[in-house]
Amino acid sequence: MAELKLSESRDLTRIERIGAHSHIRGLGLDSALEPRQVSEGMVGQAAARKAAGVILQMIKEGKIAGRAVLLAGQPGTGKTAIAMGMAKSLGLETPFAMLAGSELFSLEMSKTEALMQAFRKAIGVRIKEETEVIEGEVVEIQIDRPAVSGAASKTGKLTLKTTEMETVYDLGAKMIEALGKEKVQSGDVVAIDKASGKITKLGRSFSRSRDYDAMGPQTKFVQCPDGELQKRKEVVHCVTLHEIDVINSRTQGFLALFTGDTGEIRAEVREQIDTKVAEWREEGKAEMIPGVLFIDEVHMLDIECFSFLNRALENEMAPILVVATNRGITTIRGTNYKSPHGIPIDLLDRLLIITTQPYTEDEIRKILDIRCQEEDVEMSEEAKCLLTKIGVETSLRYAIHLITAAALACLKRKGKTVEMEDINRVYHLFLDVKRSTQYLIEFQNQYINETGDGDEDDANTMVS
Ligand SMILES: Nc1ncnc2c1ncn2[C@@H]1O[C@H](COP(=O)(O)OP(=O)(O)O)[C@@H](O)[C@H]1O
Ligand SMILES: [Mg+2]
């Protein structure tokens, strides 16, 4: 591995899923980190949001590594929402990796390898590269057709100009193909990366603006570049250590980044990459960006995972670890010991703990309001009142789920606005936990029941 491969990951787009938290666009804090009552999709939970904001500030300054935060609170109090809010406010450059505790046990790799990959997904590297580019307006493209078809590969000439000079370049078959693919024609302003031969169309030259009618409204007009045709440019790539790992691991291609099917990555590969990155840092070519690793439902981890986390946090390149749980005092997986939140004391000791509180009726109402907007559902005032009542009596999540269901019920009766009758209908169609439990108790003997002492974990969920 003489040269680390980077270019392939440049154009990777991160895939975002729309779902329960798509209405969250940030933490909703002002510049003094004070939470606004309703902002960026966030409602209430002021203390926790402010605390998350302080952590975020520390991350943005980029000076600290290896800190860990625990979000603790009852189910449905916005722990995951706050973590998503943090992710949204981080900006594109700072990586945010997310993992549910249980995922570690379902991948085709060891738990610690999965954790290692998650850690490296949360560490970004900004790499500065100087490249030579040729930037100019296309004067003419001339392609010579070979006399005997297929006898020799195509050749041609490309004339480029700036406001000050004009040069003719020889074209090989590869460049001719690339120009054709980009549909480059005279009058276009292009940039050509000298090393890779990659062609980027920057726009149409202003001098051709009279062709506007022929080009259509999407055309972007730009100035003809001035100065030399050949320029040095500094380009910055932001990638994560995990992306570099995958691209450079010989058994997996970079395509594994899309499928997620990366398998285990050998320790030597990682070592080499760490050495190389350290070299780049020394030469001032690269900068580390510790991001955030969020592990939801952290009580699902077992003692081996916790011990791995403890050690990984000691690393100078460690990201900020944010974990969340709704468990009270419960058994640490893989042991017979009980501990607060199911987390061993030595890890617990490193954590800054942020607690979330149950919502008031008014807050529930506002969250439901936001969700209605997010889901494009029109709802009458009375229906919203009823849904809020249901949210208070059952749970916020249940009430949120009813929005979609009620909107479907409304659609079915060809209504435009969700009314009380729709809410009422789906409330009776779908049980919440309380009613479902009641039902189970009534008809207990018709179900298959486990004998023995059952799952004692449930008794320890932080439900009031
Ligand atoms: N403060 C809040 N503002 C807006 N939406 C919230 C807030 N708290 C929770 N939600 C939404 O309520 C639902 C349940 O919250 P969630 O974060 O999943 O709870 P937890 O992770 O604590 O169990 C989610 O759809 C979440 O986006
Ligand atoms: Mg959650």
TrEMBL record:
| GO CC terms in record | Ino80 complex; NuA4 histone acetyltransferase complex; R2TP complex; Swr1 complex
Reactions the enzyme catalyzes = ATP + H2O = ADP + phosphate + H(+)
Q: InterPro entries recorded for this chain?
A: AAA+_ATPase, P-loop_NTPase, RuvB-like, RuvB-like_C, RuvBL1/2_DNA/RNA_bd_dom, TIP49_P-loop
A single Gene Ontology biological process assigned to it is: box C/D snoRNP assembly
Key word DNA damage present: yes
Q: Which PANTHER family does this UniProt record tie to the protein?
A: RUVB-RELATED REPTIN AND PONTIN
- Per the record, the gene is LOC108988561
Q: Which organism is it from?
A: Juglans regia
The answer to keyword Glycosyltransferase applying to this record is: no
Going by the record, the broad EC class of this enzyme is hydrolase
Its localization reads: Nucleus
According to the UniProt entry, its GO molecular function terms are:
ATP binding; ATP hydrolysis activity; DNA helicase activity
Q: What is this protein called?
A: RuvB-like helicase
